[in-house]
Amino acid sequence: MLETKEYVYAILECYDKSLATYVWYYSRSSIDSREQSLLKVYELIKEELPKVAKRVVYLQNKPDNFFKIEHNNTADNGFDLWKEELKAKLV
User: Which domain of life is it from (predicted)?
Assistant: First the structure.
């Protein structure tokens, strides 16, 4: 989990089949306090995880608060590309 001024991000690394980082984000204004943020986001993600098991269907009907970053393991700078894309999307 990551926090910024505006959002709380839940991040899931997927290592089977197609490697990717799955990210859900929630407005901080929807969370009462910082102490509650971890529990609230955990509960919200717990509802999403069974849906992710059907990956193709989930990605075709992804929620608005979700994005995916593909891992590029063929490029020499694959990690740097991933890191830059993640940084660009975090607000």
Answer: Bacteria
